[in-house]
Specification:
The protein is mainly β. The chain has a single domain, classed as Beta Barrel (Porin). Strand 8 and strand 9 form a beta hairpin. The longest helix is centred in the N-terminal third of the chain and has 17 residues. 33% of the residues are buried.
């Protein structure tokens, strides 16, 4: 048990200072702009969203992450510029990271491979984070030296950049393939902790998928699509993490997905979509409210101790006219 606690303590430091490698696995679909600013308001709709995630509920002071985001495309027949903002609070044991970012994306039509309605987006975001430590929540462990003289509040400014391509950008029932690449934490730095100095490293992401509308779905009164997608993240001196996910969504009604992660994690996600044909039509005012939940389970060596994790997501999506 002491070995397990020692591993967890070291992991806590790395998690909080690097940032959780993939803080919102399955919600990446909705919150992609947090990692890749080029995807800001990629469907030309405004969105106000809130997420809350709790990992490893079997551990006290396990990772907890909350985010609040807003995405806005400038009004026009085809919005070329989109902006966004989000705030986050990430807590792991005695460590806490708070901050936020502003995102910007510009798009144009490259008309690649005969695609007349494709889009290429270029994005940039500026981030500010404050890293803190609460020594009252630190548990002394044999073999781990705690240095309170090294503790200090650390503030860091950073930059993310990304590109995103989609073969079609309209809301018609067209099959779409897409690819996004981003570079995160482009400015290196370090964070002082009571367990030493931890370097903040650059990391890179890749996000790709294919949205398929079966012929029967296009003719159905309840159209739907099936979308397999993959997300990968790489950072020097850390293992590559890959998520594979397949999603089913009935337009303006519901969605469900199942996925697996290369770090021995599996998850299920489901949600409902409350639109203008629902009993809340007057409230959504032509938009929609999406409410979803996710559970995940780690099959690795800590799985039997950590238990399941959960995540909740709610968003209001609308067109600003």
């Amino acid at each position: 048990m002491k070995s397990l606690i020692r591993i967890l303590s070291i992991w806590i430091v790395c998690t909080c200072t690097y940032g959780q490698q993939l803080p919102t696995w399955s919600s990446l679909y909705e919150n992609a702009f947090i990692w890749n600013p080029a995807t800001t308001a990629r469907y030309d709709k405004s969105e106000l969203s809130l997420t809350h995630r709790n990992d490893w509920t079997g551990f006290k002071d396990a990772p907890v992450l909350s985010t609040l985001g807003f995405q806005f495309p400038f009004v026009g027949p085809i919005s070329r510029v989109s902006i966004g903002a989000f705030g986050e609070m990430d807590r792991v044991g005695p460590y806490k990271k708070t901050g936020g970012a502003l995102t910007y994306a510009y798009r144009f039509r490259p008309r690649l491979i005969g695609n007349k309605f494709d889009e290429l987006r270029i994005g940039l975001s500026t981030q500010f984070h404050s890293y803190g430590f609460d020594p009252t929540k630190f548990i002394a462990i044999d073999g781990i030296e705690f240095r309170p003289d090294q503790l200090q509040q650390t503030n860091r400014f950073n930059i993310n950049a990304g590109v995103y391509y989609a073969s079609h950008d309209t809301e018609e029932f067209k099959d779409i393939y897409y690819l996004g690449i981003s570079a995160n934490k482009l400015l290196p730095g370090s964070v002082q902790t009571g367990l030493g100095i931890v370097q903040l490293q650059r990391h890179f992401t890749l996000h790709a998928g294919y949205r398929w509308y079966p012929w029967s779905a296009r003719r159905s009164a309840r159209p739907y699509f099936i979308e397999p997608n993959v997300f990968a993240i790489y950072a020097p001196s850390k293992p590559v993490n890959v998520m594979m996910n397949i999603r089913y969504e009935m337009i303006d009604k519901l969605w469900a997905s199942i996925g697996f992660v290369s770090n021995a994690e599996a998850f299920l996600q489901a949600g409902v979509i409350i639109g203008e044909d629902s009993f809340l039509a007057k409230i959504v005012n032509g938009g929609s409210i999406r409410i979803g939940a996710k559970i995940d389970y780690a099959f690795g060596p800590l799985g039997k101790y950590g238990g399941i994790g959960y995540e909740a997501y709610i968003a209001y999506i609308f067109k600003w006219t």
